[in-house]
Design brief:
This protein has 2 domains: 134 residues, Golgi alpha-mannosidase II (Immunoglobulin-like); 69 residues, no CATH class. It is 15% helix and 26% strand. The protein has 2 helices and 11 strands. Strands 1-2-3-7-5 form a 5-stranded antiparallel sheet, with helices on one face. Strands 4-6 form a two-stranded antiparallel ribbon.
């Protein structure tokens, strides 16, 4: 139980500190058990569970960028969302009892703190120790619409689009020559899900 708890805590400590922008985190001891058996290797330098968990953690989060705290998956479930190549969730059971959540959309893989694959059961994920959920690159979504106006009249156009994993979004305005052309200021207010809004300037294409 002690070694399992140590492994769980290591994943929590390092992922939380990365999320909080802490530049470095030092585990107290590496080998030969160390002070109060806090070491990651035993007396024969054999990796303990916390060492194996650390190896998976560093592979998953090295170079990752923190996006947000996760606190909307139900009581007792918390975690952090990061972005590396794709989005990555690190989830915890707050009281170490089993929690069950629906499998999110666009999941690529789910694995435990030691890198073992977790297979959802009937679309549900159950866990009582730290898990990772790695997402596919989700395609952007946008609203389509058509607007018309009289000649030489101004027209406000709202472009609504979001992309959950932060891909660049592009847009095009198509104006058939028989119906004239569009001119004026083209500023898009682009809101990405769970990120702040931003403005960008783009040229239309005919």
């Amino acid at each position: 139980m002690f070694e399992a708890t140590k492994a769980d805590y290591l994943v929590w400590l390092y992922s939380r500190n990365i999320a909080r922008g802490i530049d470095g985190t030092i585990w107290y001891h590496m080998d030969n058990y160390g002070w109060n058996k806090s070491g990651l290797l035993d007396g024969t330098n054999t990796p303990l569970p916390a060492y194996d968990a650390y190896a998976v953690l560093t592979t998953a989060l090295d170079g990752a960028v923190y996006l947000r705290d996760i606190n909307d998956l139900g009581a007792g479930v918390l975690g952090f969302e990061f972005k590396k190549d794709n989005r990555l969730w690190v989830l915890f059971s707050e009281d170490d009892t089993q929690k069950t959540i629906p499998e999110p959309d666009w999941v690529n893989s789910i694995y435990d703190l030691f890198g073992n694959t977790i297979v959802p059961l009937e679309g549900m994920i159950s866990f009582d120790r730290p898990i990772y959920i790695d997402f596919d690159n989700a395609p952007p979504k946008a609203d389509n619409d058509e607007l018309t106006t009289d000649e030489d009249k101004s027209l406000d156009i709202t472009l609504t689009a979001n992309d959950i994993d932060g891909d660049d979004l592009t847009w095009h305005i198509v104006t058939p020559p028989a119906h004239g052309s569009l001119s004026g200021k083209r500023l898009i207010s682009l809101t990405r899900l769970r990120q702040t809004s931003m403005e960008l300037t783009a040229l239309h294409s005919k």
